[in-house]
Amino acid sequence: MSKTSEKRTTTLKVEKFSHTSQKPCSERWREWYSKLKFAFGAALTMIANQIGQQCDPKSYWWGLEWNRALFDFDNMSAEEEKKCWLDFQTAQYALMDVLSSNFATNRSLLTMIRLHLRKKSPGNIPRFRVRNLGKMWESKLQFFPTKAGWTSTMWMTIWLPFGYLCLHAISLKYDDTGVTDAISKYSAFVSATKFNPSDLNQWVSNI
Questions:
Q1: Biggest alpha carbon–alpha carbon distance for the chain
Q2: For 122-207, where are the alpha helices, taking DSSP H only?
Q3: Contact call for residues 43 and 12 (beta carbons, < 8 A)
Q4: Is the confidence at residue 183, as pLDDT, over 60?
Q5: 92 located within any domain
Q6: What is the pLDDT of residues 26-72, one digit of tens each?
Q7: Residue 190 lies in a domain
Q8: Counted domains in the chain
């Protein structure tokens, strides 16, 4: 089989997310997310650092970091660029496979991505409709590698991090923080502090 026709598949080996456990949702999410990151890093080492990064549609390459010692986009050959793109696409589909098997509901994953893009983020990304992204890209992002016939919109859509976007959207739903997280922690604390005279050591450990 030639290199150009080689079929690339990657399955992330991570256990199922528990939707029925008595643990607070945020705690279950963080535990599962840590295991997902390890599985992602083991399968896709070259871009392992990207899974924890926030995607910014106003920044080049969606704000994702690329190790410049390994990914020199300005001087890549066509074959090197293709391999890099295949690794990136493999990562997105591998994530979508895991997320859809664990979190797919009657609310489509693509809808979650769309809502995620329209939320205000810590980076002060303004609310905008997804269809207006192209206009913004063409006016703001002018310094992609030179490639005949390519526009900023083509670069951003070809390198669309749909798997990362979906992961972040789901994280917003499952990883509660602030007041809601404080409530779950308080509930866990109250449960743990119930005195058990028959097992003093366990009670002390729970505290």
A1: 76
A2: 133-140, 152-158, 162-174, 179-192, 200-206
A3: yes
A4: no
A5: yes
A6: 888 999 999 999 999 999 888 988 998 888 888 988 999 887 777 77
A7: no
A8: 1
